[in-house]
Amino acid sequence: MTAVSDRARFLIIDDHPLFREALHSAVQMAYPDVDTVEARSIAEALELLSGTKPFDLALLDLSMPDVQGFEGLLQLRTRHPRLPVVIVSGHEEPKIISEALSYGAAGFIPKSARKSDLASAIRSVMDGAVYVPENYEGQPPDPDSTDRADMVQRLAKLTPQQLRVLQMLRQGMLNKQIAYELQVGETTVKAHVSEILRKLNVYSRTQAVIEVSKLDNAELFRDPAGF
Hints:
Blueprint: E1 9-13, H1 17-30, E2 35-39, H2 42-49, E3 57-60, H3 71-79, E4 85-89, H4 94-102, E5 107-110, H5 115-126, H6 146-155, H7 160-170, H8 175-182, H9 186-200, H10 205-213, H11 217-220
Parallel strand pairs: 1-2, 1-3, 3-4, 4-5
Helix pairs in contact: 1-5, 3-10, 7-9, 8-9
């Protein structure tokens, strides 16, 4: 079992009290000394994550009251790209599992899993693996795929100022905050964002952040002059 410090914290994000209790029990089985914090909505989870004490893992139900589909996962990945997020869901279709993994989930655990299997899956993720159910026939995303190379080529099309804006988007900054930092108008920021989306061939700022989060820092934050 991977050693986890006494200060480690897990965040359970689920709106059903009984399943939050079940997840808490599974976490305690895997890591008895870990602090477990619960959130009943994505908004509450983001508020907890913005605190001074960091979290080491988030366990997220896809069906949350304040989001639809993968919006909750996308928001967590956008604002906290270094936080491992494991989906724990009653929707176990291979297509859903594959899509969750493509958006950067650290694993997918069916809600139908036994508590001992939940605990084993949590340990697997904490060991650095991407956990998927045994009967899942797909493959986790390959970080060295051609999609990765394509995104690097698209990043090369960004100007130094657009790259700075993209970095700020990854930090979860709003247009007005970016405008203040760059000392430009919000209209200019909106124009930069539009060009970023066009050059990266994505449809939203959230998708842009998710896609570039799949790249490592060396690829994303190289000297803009090097492009």
